Amino acid sequence: MALPFGVRQKPSLVEMPAQRMAVVHSVGDPNEVGPQVFPALFGAVFTLKFKVLKPRGIEFKPGPPRARWPLPFDTPREQWVSLWGIAVPDDTDELPQTVPDVPVALETWEYGTMAHILHLGPFADEEPTVARLRAFVAESGYEIVGPHEEEYLSRPEAKHMKTIIRYPVAPQGA
Question: pTM here?
Fold first, then answer.
Protein backbone atom coordinates (compact mmCIF):
# COMPACT_ATOMS: atom_id res chain seq x y z
CA MET A 1 0.00 0.00 0.00
CA ALA A 2 1.38 3.42 -0.94
CA LEU A 3 1.42 5.69 2.08
CA PRO A 4 -0.42 9.00 1.70
CA PHE A 5 1.48 12.30 1.52
CA GLY A 6 4.90 10.59 1.61
CA VAL A 7 4.62 9.62 5.27
CA ARG A 8 7.36 7.45 6.74
CA GLN A 9 8.77 6.51 10.16
CA LYS A 10 10.92 9.65 10.22
CA PRO A 11 9.02 12.84 11.16
CA SER A 12 8.45 15.27 8.31
CA LEU A 13 6.49 18.33 7.28
CA VAL A 14 3.96 18.23 4.45
CA GLU A 15 1.33 20.48 2.90
CA MET A 16 -2.13 18.90 2.83
CA PRO A 17 -5.27 20.31 1.20
CA ALA A 18 -8.55 20.70 3.05
CA GLN A 19 -10.70 17.59 2.71
CA ARG A 20 -14.44 16.93 2.77
CA MET A 21 -15.13 14.34 5.44
CA ALA A 22 -17.96 12.12 6.65
CA VAL A 23 -17.71 12.59 10.43
CA VAL A 24 -19.12 11.15 13.64
CA HIS A 25 -18.59 13.03 16.92
CA SER A 26 -18.39 11.04 20.15
CA VAL A 27 -17.46 11.38 23.79
CA GLY A 28 -16.00 8.52 25.80
CA ASP A 29 -13.29 5.92 25.85
CA PRO A 30 -12.42 5.20 22.20
CA ASN A 31 -12.36 1.47 22.93
CA GLU A 32 -16.01 1.69 23.99
CA VAL A 33 -17.39 4.23 21.50
CA GLY A 34 -15.45 3.03 18.45
CA PRO A 35 -17.60 -0.10 17.98
CA GLN A 36 -20.68 2.18 17.89
CA VAL A 37 -19.11 4.81 15.62
CA PHE A 38 -17.54 2.68 12.90
CA PRO A 39 -20.71 0.90 11.67
CA ALA A 40 -22.39 4.29 11.17
CA LEU A 41 -19.35 5.90 9.55
CA PHE A 42 -18.52 3.02 7.21
CA GLY A 43 -22.22 2.41 6.52
CA ALA A 44 -22.74 6.00 5.38
CA VAL A 45 -19.59 6.11 3.25
CA PHE A 46 -20.07 2.75 1.54
CA THR A 47 -23.77 3.42 0.93
CA LEU A 48 -22.69 6.72 -0.66
CA LYS A 49 -20.21 4.81 -2.83
CA PHE A 50 -22.45 1.98 -4.01
CA LYS A 51 -26.00 3.36 -3.92
CA VAL A 52 -25.46 7.03 -4.76
CA LEU A 53 -22.25 7.57 -6.71
CA LYS A 54 -21.75 4.28 -8.58
CA PRO A 55 -25.21 4.40 -10.25
CA ARG A 56 -24.23 7.86 -11.53
CA GLY A 57 -21.00 6.46 -12.97
CA ILE A 58 -18.84 8.18 -10.35
CA GLU A 59 -15.89 6.15 -9.08
CA PHE A 60 -14.92 6.71 -5.44
CA LYS A 61 -12.48 4.72 -3.35
CA PRO A 62 -12.92 5.39 0.37
CA GLY A 63 -9.66 6.02 2.18
CA PRO A 64 -8.68 4.90 5.64
CA PRO A 65 -10.54 6.21 8.67
CA ARG A 66 -9.09 9.06 10.72
CA ALA A 67 -9.71 10.39 14.18
CA ARG A 68 -9.08 13.78 15.73
CA TRP A 69 -8.54 14.16 19.44
CA PRO A 70 -8.92 17.85 20.41
CA LEU A 71 -8.45 17.47 24.19
CA PRO A 72 -5.13 16.80 25.97
CA PHE A 73 -4.34 13.13 26.49
CA ASP A 74 -4.29 13.56 30.27
CA THR A 75 -8.08 14.04 30.06
CA PRO A 76 -9.78 10.98 31.57
CA ARG A 77 -10.58 8.55 28.74
CA GLU A 78 -14.30 8.48 29.54
CA GLN A 79 -14.32 12.26 28.76
CA TRP A 80 -12.34 12.11 25.50
CA VAL A 81 -13.92 14.01 22.63
CA SER A 82 -13.38 12.21 19.31
CA LEU A 83 -14.06 13.18 15.72
CA TRP A 84 -14.01 10.09 13.51
CA GLY A 85 -13.88 10.67 9.77
CA ILE A 86 -13.44 9.26 6.28
CA ALA A 87 -12.68 11.49 3.29
CA VAL A 88 -15.45 11.74 0.69
CA PRO A 89 -15.60 13.52 -2.68
CA ASP A 90 -15.42 17.31 -2.33
CA ASP A 91 -18.79 17.83 -3.99
CA THR A 92 -20.65 15.51 -1.58
CA ASP A 93 -23.58 17.45 -0.14
CA GLU A 94 -25.55 14.69 1.57
CA LEU A 95 -24.80 11.39 3.30
CA PRO A 96 -27.06 8.38 3.70
CA GLN A 97 -27.68 7.65 7.38
CA THR A 98 -27.48 3.91 8.05
CA VAL A 99 -27.42 3.73 11.86
CA PRO A 100 -30.38 5.63 13.36
CA ASP A 101 -28.85 6.81 16.65
CA VAL A 102 -25.38 7.72 15.31
CA PRO A 103 -25.55 10.72 12.97
CA VAL A 104 -22.86 11.09 10.31
CA ALA A 105 -22.25 14.71 9.29
CA LEU A 106 -20.34 16.34 6.46
CA GLU A 107 -17.48 18.63 7.44
CA THR A 108 -14.44 20.11 5.78
CA TRP A 109 -11.28 19.35 7.72
CA GLU A 110 -8.68 22.05 7.24
CA TYR A 111 -5.07 20.99 6.93
CA GLY A 112 -2.24 23.15 5.54
CA THR A 113 1.22 22.59 7.00
CA MET A 114 1.25 19.31 8.90
CA ALA A 115 3.91 17.39 10.80
CA HIS A 116 3.45 13.65 10.55
CA ILE A 117 5.07 10.31 11.22
CA LEU A 118 4.23 6.63 10.68
CA HIS A 119 3.76 4.62 13.87
CA LEU A 120 4.18 0.85 13.62
CA GLY A 121 2.61 -1.15 16.41
CA PRO A 122 -0.31 -1.03 18.83
CA PHE A 123 -2.02 2.20 19.82
CA ALA A 124 -0.88 1.66 23.41
CA ASP A 125 2.76 2.00 22.25
CA GLU A 126 2.34 5.32 20.42
CA GLU A 127 3.78 7.60 23.13
CA PRO A 128 7.47 7.40 22.04
CA THR A 129 6.44 8.04 18.42
CA VAL A 130 4.32 11.02 19.47
CA ALA A 131 7.22 12.34 21.57
CA ARG A 132 9.58 12.07 18.56
CA LEU A 133 7.10 13.95 16.39
CA ARG A 134 6.59 16.70 18.99
CA ALA A 135 10.37 17.09 19.43
CA PHE A 136 10.79 17.31 15.64
CA VAL A 137 8.15 20.06 15.46
CA ALA A 138 9.93 22.16 18.11
CA GLU A 139 13.43 21.53 16.67
CA SER A 140 12.15 22.58 13.23
CA GLY A 141 11.02 25.98 14.54
CA TYR A 142 7.31 25.14 14.51
CA GLU A 143 4.58 24.77 17.10
CA ILE A 144 1.49 22.58 17.17
CA VAL A 145 -1.61 24.66 16.42
CA GLY A 146 -4.42 22.09 16.33
CA PRO A 147 -5.64 18.66 17.37
CA HIS A 148 -3.80 15.37 17.40
CA GLU A 149 -4.94 13.34 14.39
CA GLU A 150 -4.48 9.68 13.53
CA GLU A 151 -5.07 7.91 10.22
CA TYR A 152 -5.57 4.17 10.56
CA LEU A 153 -3.90 2.27 7.73
CA SER A 154 -4.64 -1.14 9.24
CA ARG A 155 -7.41 -2.73 11.25
CA PRO A 156 -7.06 -2.76 15.06
CA GLU A 157 -6.65 -6.56 15.05
CA ALA A 158 -3.91 -6.52 12.38
CA LYS A 159 -0.67 -8.30 13.22
CA HIS A 160 1.35 -5.29 12.00
CA MET A 161 -0.58 -2.12 12.82
CA LYS A 162 0.19 1.09 10.91
CA THR A 163 -1.02 4.51 12.05
CA ILE A 164 -0.14 7.95 10.74
CA ILE A 165 0.10 10.47 13.56
CA ARG A 166 -0.13 14.14 12.53
CA TYR A 167 -0.50 17.67 13.86
CA PRO A 168 -1.20 21.00 12.17
CA VAL A 169 1.80 23.26 12.72
CA ALA A 170 2.84 26.89 12.19
CA PRO A 171 6.15 28.72 12.59
CA GLN A 172 6.81 29.48 16.26
CA GLY A 173 5.37 32.84 17.27
CA ALA A 174 3.39 33.26 14.05
Answer: 0.90
